[in-house]
Amino acid sequence: MKPESASGPADRPPSGRASFPRDVAVIGGGGHVGLPLALTFAEAGLRTVIYDTNRETVAKIRGGTMPFTEEGAQELLERALGKRLLEVSATPEFLSECRFLILVIGTPVDEHLKPTFTAMLRAIDSCSGELRNGQILILRSTIFPGISAHVQKDLEARGLEMGVAFCPERVAEGRSLREFRELPQIVSAFRPETVAAVKELFGRFTPEFIEMTPMEAELCKLMTNASRYIQFAIANQFYTIARDHGLDFDRILHGCRHNYPRMAGMPGPGFAAGPCLLKDTMQLAAFSQNSFLLGHSAMLVNEGLPGKLVELARREVGLSGKTTGILGMAFKAESDDPRDSLSYKLRNLLTLESRRVLCTDPYVRDPSLTTLERVLSESDVLFLATPHRVYRGLRIPEDKPLFDVWSWIPRR
Ligand SMILES: NC(=O)c1ccc[n+]([C@@H]2O[C@H](COP(=O)([O-])OP(=O)(O)OC[C@H]3O[C@@H](n4cnc5c(N)ncnc54)[C@H](O)[C@@H]3O)[C@@H](O)[C@H]2O)c1
User: Fold this and answer.
1) Distance between CA 144 and CA 26 in Å, rounded?
2) pLDDT average, residue stretch 205-221
């Protein structure tokens, strides 16, 4: 392992592509966004490095095993390692040899729903000994507006001639390998030469670019996610209005959408969860000094849906003394990712209301879960919490209550 460089900026190699024996490093490259991206660069023939502080993840990737499910990724990983285009490290020493550094670590909100950008700034700080003149740092995490400018100034203050770009990730987990090649890439930077270099990098697989200023791009990404979150909240609020009046929301939704193009984009109801939508809506709320009323209202509706289902079940079939069962613990269908899943919130609420709660999921690795067969046979009341495909074909007896917001499991 190379020792961390103690040299100052003046001693660092000059700008220019030839100075860098490797093309691109993905910092946080073992994560849900970073790993598929690193694999896509390697597949495009670039000498790619993954740097991730999670040693267990690094060992898995090095050993040729995907640490999570992502369509098509296992095959790409094996190919990249086989061609020796991918190096994986839990320490940052390779970074100094890469022309592009892409930072894509988690950017959560804290327990008070406030953005915590310190993790990102700390991550840059911890790599600072490996930063070199001529490198380009691409921020890809979803970030609080103004962070890109802060990072560019911070690097300049360290005496580094580095370009900073913000190129937000917009793919959906599970489909990312396909979407990297289909979605336009937003590119923003502080210098035209940085924009040009970043376009050259992503141009290996990206079909189209949209140029913006960094602040516009930062807001664009937050507004995209907040907008989706609000759309889900509309459907969920309409669902609860209909159910509170004893009406079948499916029939209403069908009436709204059928052959009526202006409502074609209306989503159906369901748990709006996961590591992005809520926290990005809250980042936008913080940026607007908590005057983003629609965002906060959407949070109340979406986060309130598990409680609403429990209330309906209590009212309609009773929960006291009963065994309740939850089908699906991942935050969305066909995923093995339980991060910020509302299934767990539902479990907490049912723990208070019922005698015991049994939970299952075909993909999530969690020792507290049990088999589908046991949940089906031992539960008095069932809740669908993730509409995995495998549940679609279930035949649940008519007399067993099922709370299924998606109307995913046919009842007859
Ligand atoms: N998951 C998605 O579908 C998605 C989609 C678009 C955008 N995003 C955004 O992408 C960012 C990353 O999300 P994710 O889901 O990939 O997160 P993740 O938690 O799956 O991955 C982050 C990775 O970074 C590593 N890491 C943390 N600190 C590090 C450090 N200092 N140095 C090196 N590695 C470090 C972690 O070990 C982890 O493997 C977030 O800002 C998120 O909002 C996510």
Assistant:
1) 20
2) 97
